[in-house]
Amino acid sequence: MTGILAVNHFLTGEKFDTLHRHLVSTAEKMNIHLVPRTNMELALDSNINADFVLFWDKDINLARRLEKQGLRLFNSADSIEKCDDKARTYIELDGIVPQPQTMIAPKTFFKSDMEMFVDGAIDALGLPIVFKECFGSFGAQVYLCNTKQEIISHIGTTPFILQKFIKESSGRDKRIEIVGGRCVCAVRRKNDNDFRSNVTNGGAMTKCEATLCEIETAIKACDALGLDFGGVDILDNGDVCEVNSNAHIINIMDSSGIDIAPIIFNHITEKIV
């Protein structure tokens, strides 16, 4: 079996190289020839052949183009798109799993006066408020705002959402990894110096047990988003904070001892063969 590992041309460094090498070496041990190719390379190639694509990127247009050419993507373009846009994620999961109360900023085509929206959000959600740009990873472009002016200072031309701050889960959550509709790992993330639990921002991971309710919530979230595999971040009150279509599994392996890569390839093999 031959696959393509699609990665981003512009994300470089040891963190990403380690992940890519691990995926390739794991695939090789399972008799899968996995070829790393960047979205730059794939954008310039009109003749792509493989049994599947492990799409470890968020280049949605490329993903859709590959699917239209008949390639099977893990995860699908539609699933990645739903996870990549935090507003879209909230809408897709609304009424399916619990989430923090959220308000989605109205669309604007240039930097605009959002004071009316901010005032309404503060009335509904209270202060402090969590400000999230709709697109971003590793906790970037996510801010805890204590005042109206702080919120306004972060508003540019990028789409954003405002969420109710869940104080009891500040700096803490659980990352639950789902593959093929079942829970394969859970880790507790904790950051004593930041309201964001991300390891990139100084948080730490430890292996933990997820409750049955948390597992059911994570599975429902992945099913609703159409994910073959995903990492679901659940706050201490049971709310889904975010869903990741390609969580950084090396951090999870280092902290839990559980290697998710072969589980993903087993799932791919079952779907392809």
Largest sheet: 5 strands, antiparallel
The total beta strand count reads: 13
Give the topology string: H per helix, E per strand: EHEHEHEHHEHEEHEEEEHEEHH
User: What is the averaged pLDDT score?
Assistant: 95
Strand order of the largest sheet: 11-10-9-12-13
Strand residues, percent: 15-25%
The gyration radius over C-alpha positions equals 19 Å
Structural class: alpha+beta
Helix percentage: 25-40%
Judging from the principal axes of the Cα atoms, what is the shape?
globular
Give unreliable regions as ranges: none
> What's the helix count?
10
Instruction: Calculate the terminal CA-CA distance, rounded to whole Å.
Output: 9 Å
Question: Short summary of the structure?
Answer:
By secondary structure, this protein is an alpha+beta fold. It has helices at 14-29, 39-43, 60-68, 77-84, 86-93, 115-125, 148-153, 212-225, 249-256, 261-272; strands at residues 2-7, 33-38, 52-55, 73-74, 102-104, 129-133, 142-145, 160-164, 172-179, 182-190, 204-207, 229-234, 240-244. A five-stranded antiparallel β-sheet has the order 11-10-9-12-13, with helices on both faces.
Question: What would you say this structure looks like, in words?
Answer:
The chain is globular. It has a five-stranded antiparallel β-sheet, sandwiched between helices. It has helices at 14-29, 39-43, 60-68, 77-84, 86-93, 115-125, 148-153, 212-225, 249-256, 261-272; strands at residues 2-7, 33-38, 52-55, 73-74, 102-104, 129-133, 142-145, 160-164, 172-179, 182-190, 204-207, 229-234, 240-244. The longest helix has 16 residues, at 14-29. By secondary structure, the chain is an alpha+beta fold. The chain has ten helices and 13 strands. The mean pLDDT is 95. Helix 3 packs antiparallel against helix 4 (77-84) and helix 4 (77-84) crosses helix 5 (86-93). A hairpin with a 2-residue loop joins strand 9 (172-179) and strand 10.
